[in-house]
Amino acid sequence: MKTKHLLLLMLCMWLCLACGKKRAGTAADWLKADDVHVAIDETFRPLMEAELEVFAARHPEAALYPQYVSENEAIRLLVSDSLRCCVATRKLSEKELRMVEANRLRARHTRIAYDAFALITHKANPDTAITLDEIRGIVSGKITRWEQLSRSTRKGELSLVFDNEGSSTVRYMTDSLNGGQPLKGNVFAQGSNEKVIELVKQDPDIIGVVGADWLKQKGDSALHSFRNLDFNVMLVSRFSGVQGMYFRPYQYYIATGEYPLVRDVYAITTDPRTKSQVKNFYFFLSGQVGQLVICNNSQMLPVMPVQVKSVANN
């Protein structure tokens, strides 16, 4: 009888150990050391495709799984622990940090670049200059017609189009340009930066808002000219009524602070491991190689020190 009880006890202990090992294995299946699941604000897709290509060349063992989504969705995926790395234009809020900590994780942030918004118009539209106050008037609903702009020769209804309602673009326009109030007037979402560009090419009555990196053309290594684009890139002035103070979103004017529509770009990770490809990718973006990709392959400005050279404002 004692022998049977002893065998039964040993069997129960073995089953418990086996179940414990199975749970540990299952938890690690979606977070393997060589997997890089990263959610990326769709605004930065051109740059991040280049970053991922270089990272893959340096880490051929890594399996890359980028998700290009709105900023709201990227942060939601990170906070819910659906993945452990994202690229966005803001740090996590106190509430979001508490949600991360509830999963026994800790968030790390690193600034990787400075991005600029570009305002674009139809190629046939001669009105290519606007002030910051006029942009505020458009997103607040006070300006709805072209003739309300100080340097406009065009007449008729004016519309502003952007990517999507959960994007970093909308958050910036709401918080930084409209005092935290909902956008009003002729302001419409199109779903993506690509769709905004396509609509601008078709309609001379609209102004499109896209990330400056969507202006980068293949083969334009100098990054000094927007002449070959199929649309116009507007000049923006920080001040009203000042002649000769209008700038386009070149890296130079982002660096000098003369172009006003600029925001930070962050990489964020909650990966607790000391060794993983997720951590490698996170540090890669702020490291020398990742920063050189930003400097040489995008309209964005890296955070590493750069040599500033003057360009023609045309």
What does this structure look like?
With 314 residues, the chain is an alpha/beta fold. Strand 6, helix 6 and strand 7 form a beta-alpha-beta unit. Helix content is 36%, strand content 21%. The radius of gyration is 24 Å and the shape is globular. Helix 2 crosses helix 10. The protein starts with a helix and ends in a 12-residue tail after the last strand. Strands 1, 2, 3, 4, 6, 7, 8, 9, 12 and 13 form a 10-stranded mixed β-sheet that branches. The chain folds into 2 domains: 121 residues, D-Maltodextrin-Binding Protein, domain 2 (3-Layer(aba) Sandwich), CATH 3.40.190.10; 147 residues, D-Maltodextrin-Binding Protein, domain 2.
Give the topology.
Layout: H1 2-29, E1 35-41, H2 45-58, E2 63-69, H3 71-79, E3 85-88, H4 94-102, E4 108-122, E5 129-131, H5 132-139, E6 159-162, H6 168-177, E7 187-189, H7 193-202, E8 206-211, E9 231-233, E10 235-237, E11 246-247, H8 251-256, E12 262-269, H9 277-286, H10 288-297, E13 301-302
Parallel strand pairs: 1-2, 1-3, 5-10, 6-7, 6-8
Antiparallel strand pairs: 3-12, 4-8, 4-9, 4-12, 4-13, 10-11
Helix pairs in contact: 2-10
